[in-house]
Amino acid sequence: MMILYNGKIYSKDGFCQALLIDGKNIVATGSNEEIRAMAGHGDKYIDLEGRLVLPGFVDSHAHGPLSFEQKSNIDLYADETKEEYLKTVEDFVKAHPDKRMYSGMGWLNPAFDALGPDKESLDRICDDRPVILRSGDGHSVWANSKAIEMAGITDETPDPDGGTIERNEDGSTHGTFRDQAQEIMLALIPEPTVEEFLEAIEGFQDMMVSYGHTAVFDPLVAFDGNLNKAYRRMNEEGRLKMKFALAYSSMPEDPEGSLEGYRKGRPLKNGKLTEGTFVKVFIDGVVEGGTACLKEDYCNQEGYCGRPLWSQDTLNDFCAEVDRLGYDLHFHVIGDAAVQQVIEAMEYVKQENGSRARNTVAAHMQIVDPADYDKLKELDIRVSSNPYWFVKAPGYYEDIELPFLGKRAETEYPMKSFFDMGLVVSAGSDYAVTPRPYPMEGIQLAMLRTLPEEDHLDPEKVLGAAEKITLEQGLDAFTLNGAVTMGISDVTGSLEAGKCADIVVMEQDVFQTAPEKLFETNVYMTISDGEIVYEKDGRK
Question: Which Pfam families does the UniProt record give (predicted)?
Fold first, then answer.
């Protein structure tokens, strides 16, 4: 047994001093005296020296291993300008002259004009082999002329449903491909091997446990793909350091093909891995790409509200069949029109298939019409929010969100409203969109809705002051509510007898820390299934 004592433990029943672990489970919480009385000879004692103990953090939406693997190629996440991106690409090409294809990830839309990055810039670096670079938000691709040629795209190629091929004034391809159009380019990139994904999972989970995570929801895994195979092998070999729940990906352009895969799937809860319980559905794109679906026009494009990835009838039928197969649905939802599509789809599902205990999750929820709040509550649609984004980010808010959305920009990410209406609200990083997925930083941003370096008392710096949440709400979002939206709250998410010993020990007491200093706190220790997987002075 393991005994944590002399601490400030944030248990299900309030604060206590000590906690007893037997194997991978919590046996009891209580006072030092109560827990010592239950201990036996040879047990391991850990003196917390007054430190705060929280349930292990849960990231309810992160593309970890996939992003980790892509960053092992051309990694643009540290760059901010077009010139910096091109320098990184050039350096990589020079360092790897024998590669037949170059791929990478991490560029951001604010570094470019509305059309996005151009192919000619990449051609000047490499014109004889394809270069395909995914944006940091995962919704656009920047490609050179060779890649465009290999994909069979010409100036006459029409935009695919739900996608945009950016074009110059003369109609020629510009070099940027949005949403479903990017899939044409991404199809050229060979799938990473199982071994490459094994390495990526190792690197990702080492990073996440250092931030106190003990569970992650990966919302984009192909049923029979190499990433799924890598997860299974890691689990079978006992190499997973945290719990993972996986959602099978879907293809709006081929719903029946997606369903064929789901029919072969089966629910699996084995060790630290859960799969076969969720299907991920993209409803729209992103605001910065002009592909989020809105009820009213984009302010910079009269008559344009975004381009839906699904017709309502097709979405309804697809979701109903997914539901009949026993899966829950995890939606990517940015715009208020996309929210309405989800509501109508789930009303149809309920009408066709009847009531059951569903775990329907809408991720992101950037622009939400208050008129839809009651329906969200009625349908028990849970929210996977992204607190790391609840700020007026340089290059985004003034240059993109305000010009694109107008007054709607101030209403983005209404997290407090979700709590107030009684929805289950979890939190995710959407890693690698958020490069530092530390939950206490996310909680700070949700509490203050300003960047750490900004004056949180200056109302001009605050994004939607009415939507500030409390520390306790933030902790719920990153712990128990995350476990709920992952479908694993029966075994984790809170510190109570019978649940897994998924625990984070903090270096500082966040209840005594000023909100503007939460991002400076540190994780002292992370325990997953009763095993110490991270210690501040030496990673396990």
Answer: Amidohydro_3
Q: Any idea what the CATH number is for the domain that residue 321 is in?
A: 3.20.20.140
485: left (phi over 0), alpha (psi -120 to 50) or beta: alpha
What would the pLDDT profile of 326-382 be if each residue is shown by its tens digit? 999 999 999 999 999 999 999 999 999 999 999 999 999 999 999 999 999 999 999
Domain identity same for 320 and 453: yes
Beta strands in 14-85, from DSSP E residues, in sequence order: 14-16, 18-22, 25-30, 44-47, 52-55, 57-59, 74-75
Contact indicator for 65, 217 with CB cutoff of 8 Å: no
Rounded to whole angstroms, what are the CA distances from 348 to 248, 254, 354, 379?
22, 21, 10, 11
Share of the chain above pLDDT 70, in %: 99
Measured CA to CA, the distance from residue 224 to residue 213 in angstroms comes to: 27
CA atoms of 479 and 251, how far apart (whole Å): 31
Nearest to 53 by CA among 254, 190, 214, 202: 214
* Contact in structure between 480 and 487 (CB atoms under 8 Å): no
Where does 389-502 have alpha helices with state H? Answer: 402-405, 415-420, 439-448, 471-478, 480-486
Same domain, 276 and 296: yes
Q: Quick check: 239 pLDDT over 70?
A: yes
Whether 77 and 175 share a structural domain: yes
According to DSSP, the residues that pair with 523 across neighbouring strands are 506
Q: For residue 40, give its domain range.
A: 2-59+499-535
Flag the least confident range among 215-219, 347-351, 395-399, 511-515.
Answer: 395-399
Residues 173-198 have a mean pLDDT of 94
User: What's the domain count of the chain?
Assistant: 3
Residue 288 inside a domain? The answer is yes
Exposed / middle / buried, residue 13 (Cβ in 10 Å: 0-12, 13-18, 19+) = exposed
CB 111 within 8 A of CB 118: no
Cβ atoms < 10 Å from Cβ of 421? 14
Contact call for residues 498 and 26 (beta carbons, < 8 A): yes
pLDDT band at 538 (very low <50, low <70, confident <90, very high): low
* Long-range pairs for 302-307: beta carbons < 8 A, 24 or more residues apart: 305/337, 306/335, 306/337, 307/161, 307/162, 307/163, 307/164, 307/179
Average pLDDT over residues 39-58: 93
The reply to whether 439 falls in a domain is yes
CA distance linking residue 55 with residue 32, whole number of Å: 19
